[in-house]
Specification:
Blueprint: E1 4-10, H1 14-25, E2 32-38, H2 46-51, E3 56-59, H3 65-75, E4 80-84, E5 89-90, H4 94-101, E6 107-115, H5 124-132, H6 136-143, E7 150-154, H7 155-161, H8 170-180, E8 185-196, H9 201-219, H10 223-234, H11 236-249, H12 256-281
Parallel strand pairs: 1-2, 1-4, 2-3, 6-8
Antiparallel strand pairs: 4-7, 5-8, 6-7
Helix pairs in contact: 5-12, 9-12, 10-12, 11-12
Amino acid sequence: MPEIAIIIPHYNDVVRLERCLCALQENDLSGCEILVVDNASTQSLTKVQEKFPDIRFVTEPEKGAAAARNRGVQETSAPCLMFIDADCVAAPDWVTVGRSVADKADLIGGRVEVFDETPPPRSGAEAFEAVFAFDFRHYIEAQGFSGTGNLITRRDVFEDVGPFRGGVSEDTDWSFRATDKGYQLIYEDRLRVGHPSRQDWPALRTKWRRLTQEQFGLKVQGPKTRLLWVIKALAMPLSAIAHLPKVLRSPKLTTAGDRWRAAVTLIRLRLLRMVWMLRQAVGLDI
């Protein structure tokens, strides 16, 4: 029986999936089973499957990464579960570090390093993501959840907590359900993967629209939480002002142009999120 199941949800991102699998091949995969769960992509996976004959591919017709990850757990047997996304690039020691830290806690999230897929200069979206995207240490240590693009847990924990739920922020929801049951979540900085930044405003807008919809479904359950949602919405412009120093001082932005474009994107996005959240609060679509 394998020790570790590496589960990768995928939908219509074949180029990045191939890059993800190539990076995993640089790891020590002894005792590992790797499963790609495809959400019935319209792009052909034939060439990728031929290139990686030792990796299993299954199709999950229910759309969404939550359903794909659940299917991945069902299709594998290893006691340790490592989750990574198809657009992520694992460090060469990702599996080795995973093995070494798996017994430290029930849920372990790692570092996600943002990288650009386009040449300089950065767009506003890329500059914004360089500063704000995928801060897993903050997610775990301050907010109490881990993203599933770089997550380790045990099969017995997953079976006790239950499957990921679609239609909400599934990683946040699942982390909260796990910690509510008393399971320990920690951050491990040595557990590293890379993730590409969103390249432009439409891609960044799509990401945050989805996150806003998921967070509303997760957090707004009645009049009291709806009122709190309105208050949070009205605070969005103030949060943009509060975060401007972080943009201007970030070592991840090396030019004045990057800092300017990141600042403009920060303000633009927070104002848009305010509008979206207020629309949600009165029952309108965003």
